[in-house]
Known about the structure:
Elements: E1 2-4, E2 9-13, E3 16-19, H1 20-42, H2 47-78, H3 95-113, H4 117-142, E4 156-158, H5 175-193, H6 202-218, E5 226-228, E6 231-232, H7 233-251
Helix pairs in contact: 1-2, 1-4, 2-3, 4-5, 4-6, 5-6, 6-7
Amino acid sequence: MFTISIDPIIFNIGHFAVRWYSLILTFAIIVGVWLTAREAERKGFKKDDVYDAAVWIVVGGLIGARLFHVLDHWSHEYAANPIRVFYIWEGGLAIWGAILGGLVAGAAIAWRRGWRFPKFLDAAAPGLVLAQAIGRIACVITGDAMGKPTTGPFGFAYTSPNAMVPQLGVYYTPMPVYELVINVGIFALLWQLRKRNWPDGRLFLVYLTLYSLERFFLAFTSSYQILAFGMTQSQIVALLGFVIGLALLVWMPRGLDARPREA
């Protein structure tokens, strides 16, 4: 059992607070975009074009992440003070919203530029899951996305009044730590598979299937409210992601895609 006494706020400039959450999230995005650009260039995309597209994909991801989080926590966190919806620096981003928002933005950009979107998704998959792993470090520091209270053997308690846990001094299941470790494992696997002669989109589907499976089972330790069918919002989306990803993997041919490979 561990007690975390780190203040989520690094320092204040007037009424503006510089937080570990935003700092680590920014670093995670930079790493993810850099790795995606590197992989995309190897696959024939122009690196500068990828960096330009990344701006809009990140914006789409942040909007989706915030929207999913707000919808999931509206009644008990935002209904009484709706202006807090825009306080993104305080934390509160739903990763499924980030994935879906980024996919929508990425698909629009790929269509406009004539890119093969599945090929671009393969380039993005390793960087995406690595960024997700790094982002969970922010959750560990701030207490965001912690699971249910636990009596051991592994739990985190927080002492800072700025921590995002429901109650200070109570040990919670460290779901972000579990996700961080699993995401690093998924990244290592994707990194080994990325040069295989697979059809475009297959590597991303491997990511989607594994990550969905991870999120479905880890959500049983979460304290998020039940949405429907005894499952949380995250579990429902994860179940859909797993079914879609697995079905497409089964349907997709396993050999080399014989079609011309253009970015």
